[in-house]
Amino acid sequence: MGDKSESERAGPNTRLSSADTATSGTDDWFIREVLPLEAALMQFLRSNWNNESELTDLRQDVYVKVYEAARKQIPEFVKPFLFAAARNLLIDRVRRNRIIPIEAMADLDALGAVSSDSEPDRIVLARDALRKLQIVLDRLPPRCREAVILSKIEGLTRREIAVRMNIAEDTVRQHLMHGMRILANTLYGERAEPRSGS
Amino acid sequence: MTDACAKGLAEAANAADIEVEAADWLERKIGGSWNERDDALFEQWLARSPDQRVAFLRLSAAWSYADRLSALRPVPQPRMSAAGLGRRPLLSKIVIAAMLPIVLIGIAASYLALTGPRAQVYATAFGNRKKIVLSDKSQVELNTQTVLRFTADRTRRVAWLDRGEAFFQIAHDVKRPFVVYIDNQRVTVLGTKFLVRSDADRLEVAVVEGRVKVDPADDAALHKFVVLIPGEDAIISAKSVSVARKGVKNLDDTLGWRRGVLVFDNTTLADAAAQFNRYSRKKIVLADTEAARLTIGGTFPIDNVELFVRVTRDVLGLHVEKRGDDEVISR
Prior knowledge:
The complex is a heterodimer of chains A (198) and B (331). With 198 residues, chain A is an all-alpha fold. Chain A has helices at 6-14, 21-34, 38-48, 55-72, 78-97, 105-110, 121-139, 142-152, 158-165, 169-189; one strand at residues 99-100. In chain B, strand 2 (130-133) and strand 3 form a beta hairpin. The longest helix of chain B has 29 residues, at 3-31. Chain B folds into 3 domains: 3-115, no CATH class; 120-251, Jelly Rolls; 260-330, Phage tail protein beta-alpha-beta fold (3-Layer(bab) Sandwich). Chain B is α+β, with helices and mostly antiparallel strands. Helix content of chain B is 35%, strand content 31%. Strand 1 of chain A pairs parallel with strand 16 (295-301) of chain B, so a sheet runs across the interface.
């Protein structure tokens, strides 16, 4: 795994096979520009929606909207675009359900002018990536962590991991799937903790 | 449960399901047994809707990102290293297990001397709330306009809720039963956390934890007694007892005042206004029955009548007029 570039490293395994260049352009944009804003998006959703159990669903809906729109035209400024989509979604829901989500409802008005800061999120993500990954690893249940490490670092196949850990292949599957989801949630969904030192 | 609620839940399950499907595909891709047939099936799955695509992109991007893990742990001797990594958590687990503290349930010595018949009185003013700790270490949260008296000796603990509403968290003490008297009803505590609210013509008792027995102090009363379990909310009037199984989670809404909020779920404006009016001098007045019957849901700060009125006006399209201190809502 020496000095391969990022994109090579992602490799054929994770790149979607669609040959449609417009689509893969949108995919790249989505991964590069939108996902790093997830922590901020979640914070926004959380403080404007009081039903915790619906947050994942809301996030998904925002992503779909944004992705669909970007397919037609990739927006110039990502952050305001993303937050406008989130805001509109919340307002739609309020109207549809007649459920007013919160003390912060009043704030929805103020959100029209969500700042278009100079996107620090991506930089933070890069800088904190290693530490965050470490956090994710620590957080995984031991067996799950072991499976992830064998897969990621040693590049073992599912069967090889099963033999090494002396468990069923299907259990390895479950471990890896669980690890993937926690990885994504921690990497994108949470704000980095304040740095100590450096 | 309202339709809106049910729908929300269904959608939430949906997004999580899609994520599991995405993880399933991603695992297959990296698992080492991918073939052409999988390719076709995967394409089909992806094409189903942007939901699938977005969920997959998210997981796979994070997974690729984790390639950097290799930088964290140089692996000159992969096998050894991996085995070590695998073992470390196991070891720490054992250590933790060994260190698990032995839980000592200390039965507090009855340090309380006889306090005599004189009861301590606690009260809150209109619109106020207060947390108090009784002499037996039980904690009580008093809602607006509440008066509570309490006394304890070596054999018993007695409280009188003269008016208002209180949430009790009773200190465990088997030797001294805890009893609350409200009007002519007696609430004997068999457990730890419960709410008692006394209104003009009715009593409400809701249990969050443990069990509570409610019986009439007056033997001539119609009902004998009821024992309430967690999640149950009983309304007791002179003539009837009705017990609603609300569930502990929904009781959380009933107890919203403890967090300084009022929680409505398909609540009529008439009810919502009555609830706000318990806390505020500025009253919400519903000018016509049509408006009073409209329902609303949501969580509102208990002390912000203006916000509630404004939001109600905007969402339900009602007319609001200020009359003195009051807010008059009409269609």
